[in-house]
Design brief:
By secondary structure, the protein is mainly alpha-helical. The protein has twelve helices and no strands. The chain binds fe (ii) ion (2 copies).
Length: about 325
């Protein structure tokens, strides 16, 4: 990619920013008026669908156990978005600087993006409070959003935008492929992620534009270092997932009483970690749209480094013939 954009390229980018603003205005929603509408979470139903939670892989759990584990995972799912949106909002405001005195449609797209992420964090805090009120005590969300954001924001903008694009594309994939299709989850929980994904669709477009714009600024050496940063960020995400999966497994076992033996407890903890790696890392890396952008921006050698780093996590891909991870394609 060249350092400077041709007039045609910048016209295309400007039109995409403008389109994201237009759609953002049209679909804008309010937490209480549109999403919550005076409703509560339905604790008689599951939250995170089986397609994401993998609770159906634990054959020794009864229906009540599966529902409880789906609700714990659904609570973590909301908290995880509240967590990542802390650094995403900060990075979006950071990169908006380049547009302050430039393309005002791009600036508006980024301002709306930041504003929406701040609103989403408030929505997920509301969901956490509802979960705390309706579920047994003992749940802990381990990572601190500001500590994570401070660490993430020390990495290169290229890497942070790559991670952000990956997250926002898996949000869309999860809703499209798992959440929308499940008619048996709590209606409010489902609506939260319906409305969330509608605004995330615009964010993904802006991510792609900003990531490509940042990429064009980098020398080959800087891009090489940025790839290292991205690999480090994925490793940090995995560290968070390991800690949260262990906490959520312990929470579930404690809520269930002393009914599970050591082998069952290990199976629960292993299934949770595998499910979280699928939800927050592997499902995004497998997204064709993410792979297209990433592999256009990096060299074959950099692609090979990314694929090697991802290798140990590919066991989290669901065991279906059509879901084979084409890392070396
Ligand atoms: Fe969001
Ligand atoms: Fe977003």
């Amino acid at each position: 990619m060249s350092i400077t954009q041709s007039p045609l390229q910048s016209d295309v980018a400007s039109a995409r920013y403008a389109k994201s603003v237009e759609v953002s205005k049209r679909i804008r929603w309010d937490i209480d008026r549109d999403v919550i509408r005076g409703r509560s979470l339905d604790f008689a139903r599951r939250f995170l669908p089986d397609g994401l939670s993998k609770v159906d892989r634990l054959g020794f759990l009864d229906a009540n156990d599966r529902r409880a584990l789906s609700q714990i995972q659904g609570r973590t799912y909301a908290n995880m978005f509240g967590l990542v949106e802390r650094f995403i909002a900060a990075k979006v405001l950071d990169v908006s600087r380049d547009h302050w005195l430039g393309d005002q449609r791009a600036l508006e797209a980024l301002v709306r993006f930041g504003d929406e992420e701040i609103k989403h964090q408030e929505l997920f805090r509301r969901i956490e409070r509802m979960c705390a009120a309706g579920m047994p005590e003992g749940y802990t969300f381990v990572p601190d959003p500001n500590a994570v954001a401070s660490a993430v924001l020390t990495k290169s903008t290229w890497a942070v935008l790559a991670l952000t694009c990956h997250i926002e594309l898996f949000v869309l994939a999860h809703y499209r492929e798992s959440i929308d299709a499940d008619g048996d989850v709590s209606e409010l929980w489902k609506d939260v992620f319906l409305y969330h994904s509608r605004e995330e669709a615009q964010h993904a477009i802006v991510d792609e534009l900003e990531w490509a714009r940042e990429n064009a600024k980098l020398s080959p050496q800087e891009r090489d270092a940025a790839v290292d940063d991205l690999i480090a960020l994925v490793g940090a995400v995995d560290g968070i997932l390991q800690a949260q999966a262990a906490a959520d497994a312990a929470c579930f076992v404690a809520m269930a009483g002393a009914r599970f033996g050591e082998a069952e407890r290990d199976h629960i903890a292993g299934t949770l970690l595998k499910a979280y790696r699928w939800q927050y890392i592997v499902s995004g890396v497998m997204e064709p749209r993410f792979r297209t952008v990433l592999f256009e921006l990096v060299s074959p050698a950099q692609r090979a480094r990314i694929e090697a780093a991802m290798g140990p996590l590919t066991y989290a891909v669901p065991a279906a013939p059509t879901m084979a991870l084409p890392m070396a394609a």
